[in-house]
Amino acid sequence: MFEWMFGKKQTPQERLRKNQRALEKTQRELDRERLKLEQQERKLIGEIKKSGRNGQMRACKIQAKDLIRTKKNIQKFAKMKVQLQAISLRIQTVRSNEQMTQSMRNAAQLLGTMNKSMNLPQIAHISQEFSRQTDIMSQREEMMDDSLDDLMDEELDDEDEEEVDEIISKVLDEIGVDLSNNLIDVPGEVVTEGQTGARVAVKEDDDLQARLDDLRR
Description:
By secondary structure, this protein is mostly helical. The protein has helices at 2-6, 12-53, 57-114, 121-152, 160-175, 179-182, 205-216. The model is unreliable at 183-204 (pLDDT under 50). Residues 1-29 are annotated as: Disordered. InterPro entries: Snf7_fam (IPR005024).
């Protein structure tokens, strides 16, 4: 009656298979998100190059920060997938152990039928040990979930500012852009076709160096 009302109770093997399928599905979803982030990474690199060609160094810096965040998220997804794979492997091990334990139970029942008075303390001890190890594995999975939450809470800190400058310099070197040739009076302003023949007024060397230092900060 209760099975009709609430459904058939799942066996431990069925629960393990269900959890393993859920883990595999999650891994596929992580792969899809990682691919999206990698596409975003390539797009940001292209935008940094474009801003560098146009002399928009302020935009370069903002885009470089976004690129660092994207790279960190890609690394997080990769770590999460590795951890999920490790959990899936442990579940597979538990399934094997459960199958082995079930076989031992069947053997114990057969021996009990042959001789009901036979005492099987060793099999009972193995069953108890299996239950204990299963509880330990559950506790470790909870600890791993907490660790994953901590990873996702990490944010970009001040130490990444140096990496921002390195990314900008590397991208500008790749496209052959000279910072001194892209400086204009208004930061972020792009020279239009009508202004091609016009010369930009340049101050003394000390003022030019000061502006370069401001752009790199």
